Amino acid sequence: MKHFILLGVLASTLKPNMKIIPFLVLFLFGTISYGQSDTVRIKDLLTVLTKTPKPRNHQNIDQLNLCAKFISTNFKEYADTVFYQNYQIGSLTYKNIVARFNPQASQKMVIGAHYDVCGNQEGADDNASGIVGLLELARLLKGQKLDKCIELVAYTLEEPPFFRTEYMGSFIHAKSLKDSHADVVGMVSLEMIGYFNEAKHTQDYPIGFLKLFYGSRGNYITVVNKFGKGKGARKFTKHMDRFAQLPVKKFNGPKSLTGIDFSDHLNYWKMGFSACMITDTAFYRNKNYHQKTDEMGTLNISRMAQVIDGVFLSILA
């Protein structure tokens, strides 16, 4: 009873639409425990991933393997099960890294991000930011009571020349789930989650009039869905909008719209799974996209942490 009284007092002092209300409901009733992302750890992880001797692209397979080992080692600190998903391209072996929490559960939710880069660059936002998101989620998920299996996957070979081919790491993983008849309730792709700008006229769109609805400031995170997104993506999008402590803008559109399928979620769509993408909108905002200027110093660590916290709370909700 005291929970109802306390909730009533707190809610009465807040505007009805403030995002803290659903958080208070969950916190007070103990259905989840709030985990805050560690900005110091985020910065340290970004440093390791971006300041490598060679760019982590498909040509530098030794560097990719070192990154895979780093990700695996971090996953093993927190997950119940960690393993490589190896596959061959000619004589070369490439690796996805899979971490499972509550692996015995029948239903599965997948959160993924790619660790390779396009060409010779650090790839801080694209997509060290997404990988750091996975590594922080692993830390936050440890010890949580889960009603389904949460599968965190770090993919290789998302970038050209393998984008949209069957050699993408996410294609390999999504197909393995389909072939095994896995009960996948949804998939979330973390694709560039670290670049924000409060100034006006820093946000572009695939269609100009969208600026009237979404604004001209690049200060929000987006949950991107296709039309007919499915139950899993719809529920996750709803929770992300409620729990993230930064502006969240939901975007639904046709797959033909430029950019809507520019990440690993596209392969889960191909396999018939419900999937969405969490993104800072990539090249529609971050002009360092696929450039050598995509460096760690351009990222907003505190906003990144808010994105990760929102994803974490949405997973548990």
In short:
The chain is of the alpha/beta class and 317 residues long.
Task: Please give a handful of descriptors for the protein shown.
317 residues; alpha/beta; Aminopeptidase; 10 helices; 19% strand; globular; disordered N terminus
Kindly name the structural category.
alpha/beta
Measured distance between first and last alpha carbons: 23 Å
Q: What's the overall average pLDDT, rounded?
A: 90
- What number of structural domains do the residues give? 2
Major sheet description: 8 strands, mixed
The topology string of helices and strands comes to: HHHHEEEHEHEHEHEHEH
Query: What is the CATH C-level name of the largest domain?
Result: Alpha Beta
Compute the number of strand runs: 8
CATH architecture of the largest domain: 3-Layer(aba) Sandwich
Our estimate of the beta-strand percent is 15-25%
* The CATH H-level homologous superfamily of the largest domain: Zn peptidases
Helix content: 25-40%
| Strands in their spatial order, largest beta sheet | 1-2-4-3-5-8-6-7
Number of helices: 10
Shape: globular
CATH topology of the largest domain: Aminopeptidase
Describe the structure.
The chain is an alpha/beta fold and 317 residues long. The chain has two domains: 1-31, no CATH class; 36-316, Aminopeptidase. 37% of the residues lie in helices and 19% in strands. The protein is built from ten helices and eight strands. The protein has helices at 2-12, 20-29, 39-50, 61-76, 124-141, 169-179, 211-214, 231-243, 265-270, 301-316, and strands spanning 81-89, 92-101, 107-114, 149-155, 183-190, 221-226, 248-253, 275-279. An eight-stranded mixed β-sheet has the order 1-2-4-3-5-8-6-7, with helices on both faces. Helix 1 packs antiparallel against helix 2, helix 3 crosses helix 5 (124-141) and helix 5 crosses helix 10 (301-316). It is globular. It starts with a helix and ends with a helix.
